[in-house]
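Quick log. Single chain, no ligands specified.
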Amino acid sequence: MTATAVTTAINFKERDTINFKTIEKTDKKIFDEFYKKNYYENAYACFTGLYMWRKIGNTQWAMEDDIIYLCSEWHGKFSAFQPLCAPEKIPQAITKVIELFKECGQSVKLVGLEKFFIEELAKYPDADFEISSDRNNSDYVYLAQDLINLSGRKFHGKKNHLNQFYKDYPTAEYLPITCEIIPQCREVLKNWYENHEDPDDIFVGQEKDAINEIFDNFDEFKLKGGAILLGGKIVAFTFGEQLNKDTAVIHVEKADPEIRGAYTAINQNFIANEWANMTYINREEDMGLDGLRQAKESYRPVKMVDKFSAKIL
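-> predicted structure:
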C-alpha cells in the first residue's frame, strides 16, 4: 500500500496570517538551526522524524520573524505543533498561532508540546488553556550505558537473550549502514512488511514508504545506522541521530522475526558502536500499542518525555 497525504478543505498555503508550504528535504538546514535554539527532549524535535511523517496529516511549515510554525490537518481538523523559536519569542508565537486558528474558523489546538512550552502557556496573559497529557505519545528515554552493558538484575533477561543470540549465531557481525548495504536493509524492510501489512492502516504503509525515502537520501540526512550481518545476509537494521547535546534518538528498528534475539542484538550493538558518547537514548513513543509499550518498558526507561496538547477554554 502506498500512503498519501490526507486532504481536507483547509488550505494553509494562502493565509493572510502566515503563508505555509510543504516540507522538502532541502529545508533540513533551516530546521536544524532552529532546533539548536532550545534544549528539546521531544523526539519530534528533529527534521528526520518530521520529514518521514509529513504526509500523514499534510504537515506544512512557515517561517516569520525568526519563528517556525508547523501545522497539520486530519479529517478536517486543524492542529498546530509547538513553534520553534528562541525562548523570548514564545509569547509572540502563541499569539500568532491563535490568530491563525481564528482565520481558519477553528478552535485552537496545539499538540506535541513539551513541559517548558506548557509553562509558557500557563503564563500567557491573553488566553486560558486547558492542558491534557498524551501518554500514548510520551517518549521513552534510557541511559545509554544501561542499553550497552545490560548489567544487573533488571536487565538479566535481556543479557541472557543477547548471550543466547551469539551462542546460536556466533558468526553474527555488526556493520554501520553504508550505501553498499542499504539494498539488503530494504530487503529486511520488505520482508517485515509482508508479515505486517494492513491495507486499512495508513500508518503502516506510510512508515514503509518513509523508511525507503530516507534510504534514498541517507547521507543527506546525516544519520547513523547499524545492521546485523548473519551468513552474508542482513537480518536487522536501525538508524537514528543526535537529538540534543546529550541524547540520541532512534527512529527505526527492524529485524527478521525468525532470528531469535535479533532485536536485542541490533539495539545493544547500535548504541555501543555509535552512541556510547551520549548520556541518553530516546526510543520514541509506543503510540498506545500494548505490545510496543511492553517492549519499551522492558528496557527500563530512566525517564519519560511527556507530551501535551492544549486548547483554549
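Residues 182 and 215 are 7 Å apart (CA to CA).
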